[in-house]
Amino acid sequence: MNGHVDENGRALIQIPIAASPDAPFQSFPVWIDTGCTGELVLPRALIESLQLPSHGAVQVMLADGTEHLSETFVCDLEWFGERRTVEVVANNSFPLLGVGLLLGRILTIDYSSLTLSVTSL
Predict the structure, then answer these.
(1) What does the alpha-carbon distance between residue 55 and residue 84 come to, in Å, rounded to a whole number?
(2) Partner of 5 for a Cys bridge, out of 33, 77, 103, 114, CB 3.0 to 4.6 A?
(3) Phi, psi for 46 (deg, rounded to 5)
């Protein structure tokens, strides 16, 4: 999978997301966030527009050290040729792809050429 680095230095990749196993995929840009230990974080507005099913809540720690309870949802992703169901944490800002999806992969970000790739081992 290939992505790019934008003018603000954010590493971005497009991922196909579906609300359920029988729903069609729609691609969205997400920021690669190696500080996020989960799989996927999506803005509440996107979660609502996709009508993702609720999955409960989880305690999260933000970058500033504060903790709070966040709602969770589920969605399907197409990830390296496989349809995969993942937990989505709701936020009020940006879509993030965390290390939960990067485990077992090689992430290469080249800031000189503004490119990125995620590959299998």
Answers:
(1) 16
(2) 114
(3) -70, -40
The DSSP result for 57-121, as a single string, is EEEEE-TTS-EEEEEEEEEEEEETTEEEEEEEEEESS--EE-HHHHTTEEEEEETTTTEEEEEE-
Q: What is the pLDDT of residue 62?
A: 76
pTM over 0.85: yes
Q: Dihedral (C-alpha) 2, 87, 69, 99: value to the nearest 10 degrees?
A: -40
C-alpha to C-alpha distances, 54 to 7, 9, 90, 97, nearest whole angstrom = 34, 33, 10, 19
Q: Measured between alpha carbons, how far is 44 from 70 in angstroms, rounded to an integer?
A: 11
